[in-house]
Amino acid sequence: MSLLNAKQLVQNAVRLEENGERFYRRWAEKTQDPASKKFLFHLADEEVKHRELFQSMADLVTDLPMDADVYGEYMAYMQGFVDETLFNEKVYAAEMAEISTLAEAVEFAMRQELDSVLFYLELKTFVPADQEGMIEAIVKEERRHYADLLRFKKELTA
After folding, report:
1. Bridge partners, residue 64, by sequence
2. Which of 51, 87, 126, 154 could form a disulfide with 17 if both were Cys (CB 3.0 to 4.6 A apart)?
3. CA 1 to CA 154: how far, in whole Å?
């Protein structure tokens, strides 16, 4: 029996939100359109709120006993998901370098928001029951971000 490092998963969520904030701020600073700039800064500010919530959760979660044979592969999946996906600038450096328009940036962000939803739904399994509601609230916001980005993308291409 070993421990499932729930704190590490929550800290990964903090990192995810930091990466998302940087991405949105970078594109907000690049765009000249005031409405687009406002929208992207709003998304960046939302990521800050999520990061702060996860930072406060990191002190509350405790590592859980786990059977390494059962959860070892699952933890490898979770760590790989964080390391190889989700606004990971090292992994996506080449793709981000190819992003030259705001529409392309929005498409990239939409994929990242969907990946975030998946990660947070998985993360919910590892937090205390009284914190599941907080995770679900963030999932709901990430879904809303996706829908907002989709509407924004349609406006850009209209």
Report:
1. 4
2. 51
3. 51
Contact 23, 87 (CB under 8 A): yes
Instruction: Tell me if 102 sits within 8 A of 36, measured CB to CB.
Output: yes
Structure tokens at 28: 């907000």
Dihedral sign (CA 124, 142, 83, 54):
negative
Mean pLDDT of 90-101: 80
Element (H, E) at 130: none
Residues 10-38: tens digit of each pLDDT: 787 888 888 889 989 999 999 999 999 99
Q: How far apart are CA 139 and CA 121, in angstroms?
A: 7
pLDDT for position 66: 60
Average pLDDT on 123-142 reads 83
Q: Is the pLDDT of residue 87 over 60?
A: no
